[in-house]
C-alpha cells in the first residue's frame, strides 16, 4: 500500500511539473511572440500553404528550411485562416511531454504567415511533430494531435 501511494505521489508531481512547463512556454518570451505573431498575421497579414518533401527526393532550388517545395504557395481563404488560427492557438492541439516517436522528421505540409515577421510551421503527419520557425530560426518543436489539422490540409490540398 505504501508503495502504491509513493507511485501515485510521484505521478502527481510529474503531472504538475509538466503542466507548469506547458504554462511557462505559453507565457514565455518565446511562446507569446510566436502565437501573437500568428494571430496578428492571420488577422492582418497573409497565410500560404505549401506541400514539402524530404530533401533528397526532389529538386531543392525552392525550399523551406531545407525541405523542397512540391506545390504551392496556396493562399488560404479567410474561413480556413480562422479555422487554422483556432487550431494553432488551442492548447489542446499540442501534446507536450510526449515520448518521441521513432521517426525522422519528414514534413509534408508547411504554413507561412507573413506580416512584420515570417512565421513558418512545418508539419510531419507520420510522427505528429510540428516545428515553429520565426524569421528563419527554429524556435519550438512539439507533437500535436493531427485530426483537425489533417482535415484542414485535405481541404487545402484535395487529392484527385
List the keywords.
disordered N terminus, 8-stranded antiparallel β-sheet, 160 residues
Notes on the protein architecture:
The structure is a single chain. The protein has 160 residues and is α+β, with helices and mostly antiparallel strands. It has one domain. Helices cover 39% and strands 29% of the residues. The protein has helices at residues 2-27, 31-44, 78-89, 146-156, and strands at 46-52, 63-64, 67-75, 94-95, 109-114, 118-124, 129-134, 137-144. Strands 2-3-1-5-6-7-8-4 form an eight-stranded antiparallel sheet, covered by helices on one side. A hairpin with a 4-residue loop joins strand 6 (118-124) and strand 7 (129-134). Helix 2 runs antiparallel to helix 3 (78-89) and helix 3 packs antiparallel against helix 4. The radius of gyration is 18 Å and the shape is globular. The termini are far apart.
The profile of the biggest β sheet is: 8 strands, antiparallel
Name the average pLDDT: 74
Q: Rough shape?
A: globular
Q: What are the secondary-structure elements, in order, as H or E?
A: HHEEEHEEEEEH
Total count of helical runs of at least 4 residues: 4
Amino acid at each position: 500500500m505504501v508503495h502504491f501511494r509513493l507511485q501515485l505521489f510521484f505521478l502527481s508531481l510529474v503531472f504538475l511539473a509538466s503542466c507548469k512547463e506547458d504554462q511557462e512556454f505559453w507565457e514565455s518570451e518565446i511562446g507569446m511572440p510566436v502565437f501573437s505573431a500568428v494571430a496578428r498575421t492571420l488577422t492582418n497579414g497573409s497565410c500560404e500553404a505549401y506541400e514539402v518533401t524530404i530533401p533528397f527526393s526532389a529538386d531543392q532550388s525552392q525550399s523551406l528550411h531545407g525541405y523542397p517545395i512540391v506545390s504551392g504557395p496556396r493562399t488560404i481563404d479567410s474561413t480556413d485562416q480562422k479555422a487554422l488560427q483556432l487550431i494553432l492557438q488551442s492548447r489542446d492541439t499540442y501534446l507536450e511531454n510526449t515520448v518521441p516517436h521513432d521517426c525522422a522528421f519528414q514534413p509534408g505540409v508547411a504554413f507561412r504567415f507573413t506580416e512584420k515577421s515570417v512565421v513558418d510551421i512545418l508539419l510531419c503527419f507520420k510522427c505528429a511533430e510540428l516545428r515553429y520557425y520565426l524569421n528563419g530560426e527554429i524556435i519550438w518543436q512539439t507533437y500535436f494531435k493531427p485530426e483537425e489539422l489533417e482535415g484542414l490540409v485535405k481541404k487545402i490540398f484535395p487529392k484527385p
